[in-house]
Amino acid sequence: MSEIKTILSPEVPAPAGHYSQAVAYKDLVFVSGQLAPRPDGSHTAAEPFGVQARQALANLLAVLAAAGSGPGDVLKVTAYLVGGGHWPEFNAIYAEVFGEHRPARAVVPVPELHYGYLIEIEAVAIRRGEG
């Protein structure tokens, strides 16, 4: 029997490809890259960067909650941003979401993302409870 558990949040659209929203192993949870679709599956790709960033982070937090984790449990974040110009706005929104907690982080500029989104964000966190 595998100790790897698949995590699925009903608050985030189901994966459209061959992957899980997250997987947990023992006390760690690995969250796949989250784009910014709304919970109903509608896209925010035509919306300004700030709207997309807030939705992508909300999706990340919803998957973490389903895994028994939260923002204060995040160890490492990788954010992929289309171009480097959104970095200051991302940093401000990210700071609002994480508050005083400062996980390790990488911000990677990329030329484009799926569906025309401007942000994708993934994380590794501690899993404190059964989600």
Automatic annotation (TrEMBL):
Keywords assigned by UniProt, alphabetized: Hydrolase
Enzyme Commission number, as recorded: 3.5.-.-
Gene3D superfamilies to which the protein is assigned, alphabetical: RutC-like
Enzyme class: hydrolase
Top-level taxonomic group: Bacteria
SUPFAM superfamilies per UniProt: YjgF-like (SSF55298)
GO molecular function: hydrolase activity
The protein's name: RidA family protein
